[in-house]
Fold this protein.
Amino acid sequence: MATRADILPVPVPGVRATRWATDDLYAGMKETYAIGRIEAGRTEWWCRGKVWSSGPGSLQILRPGDVHRDISRDGPGTGQCVALSAQLVESAIGEVRVPPQLAADDERGAAFHRLHDAVRAGADRIALEVAVAEAIGALAAVGDAQREHTRPVRRAIELLRARLAEPVTLDDLAAHAGLEKFHLCRAFRAQVGMSPYAYLTRLRIMRAKEMLAAGVRPRDIAPQVGLYDQSQLNRHFRRIVGTTPGEYARGVQSGAGSARPTARPLSAGSPPRAHTRAS
């Protein structure tokens, strides 16, 4: 089966939906607030330093920058993912931390299930807009329920986001985090799922994708996202996204975007046979 992801029409700005089927292991870093619902199959997966177990009806709720790695899968899986842009969510309720998973019978997930049902049924735009608004309200209600990252790691993430386009040294990061750099590297990898450098590189490529979608020419992007030159941008972009910046830009302009799943590991330590799907 490998992995198949089909885009569903959602006529609401800032909202994207896919239905997926796979017997592979997924690994990826989210670019949006992603609300996934498992329909069939069971999987164990890692996120924010913990291992979670998902079955039919479970909701996976991830935020931009979250790393998700499947560890094992019990049979083929199918599901649906509704992605809400950071701008859409944070303009309404601010940046919010959310629990990575809600059980199928958790009453807090009712609004998310209504959103998934509306998307799958191809509901009218006003019904979809109401479902999206209620889901964002539900994010606020369940948000900040826990702080998975320790303070030094949170501060390191904040600095990487704030200085994405600037040179950042490990000493800078350690000083801002208030933790000796060797301990910071170990804590960051354990809690986030990758090294500070790998995380920063992914943030930069996420920003590059946004700029390409906005019509910025590929040759103008590298210095604006903290990369040395076009060749470095091309190298990281191809490794992470699975295509070149130019090809990605042409796909966005033609309406194809990045719909097709790509087989790109998160890092040298990623599980084998890990594939990415739309975030």
Summary: The longest helix spans residues 125-142. The domain at 3-142 is CATH 2.60.120.280 (Jelly Rolls). Strands lie at 3-8, 15-22, 25-29, 33-47, 50-54, 59-62, 67-84, 101-102, 274-275. The two ends are 20 Å apart (CA to CA).
